[in-house]
Design goal:
The chain is α/β, with parallel strands linked by helices. It is 54% helix and 14% strand. The protein has a six-stranded mixed sheet. Helix 1 crosses helix 2, helix 1 crosses helix 3 and helix 5 packs across helix 6.
């Protein structure tokens, strides 16, 4: 992954803050520390939205809204990609070709648009390369 940008999917971010995630929590914390040190972390506005909902409503011990809001403020120092019409169109093309859900395709489209070389995700096909973007499951 050298100095290239790394796009982080929601699940990796969530595991970094979900202390009940066991081994995945420890792995995700190490990933986050590395990305903060290197400055290579990239996410999209969609990831931040999913992150907020998951941490405040979907994990076994939901976090306080104000704590998650503060974490989002800290994450805003990363490269944050906004979703525009071009990203939506690209996502529909990726969905059609690779058969991912629209929402996963939108994540892939944002990562490509942001110039990431790697996307860390447990939900996408580990090892697959799409338009120069390599998918890696850090929990495998």
């Amino acid at each position: 992954m050298n100095g290239d940008k790394v796009f982080v999917d929601t699940n990796v971010l969530v595991y970094a803050y979900d202390k009940d995630a066991g081994k995945k929590h420890r792995i995700a914390v190490d990933i986050m520390k590395d990305l903060w040190r290197s400055g290579r972390g990239t996410i999209s506005a969609q990831i931040l939205q999913e992150f907020f909902v998951t941490l405040t409503k979907k994990i076994s011990a939901p976090m306080d809204i104000s704590d998650v809001r503060e974490t989002i403020r800290r994450l805003s120092k990363w490269d944050i990609l906004l979703i525009d019409v071009d990203a939506i169109i690209r996502a529909t093309e990726l969905q059609e070709r690779y058969k991912y859900s629209f929402w996963d395709s939108l994540i892939i489209a944002a990562a490509i648009a942001g110039g990431a070389r790697t996307i860390l995700s447990e939900d996408l096909a580990d090892g697959q390369t799409i338009q120069g973007l390599t998918i890696k499951n850090p929990f495998k």
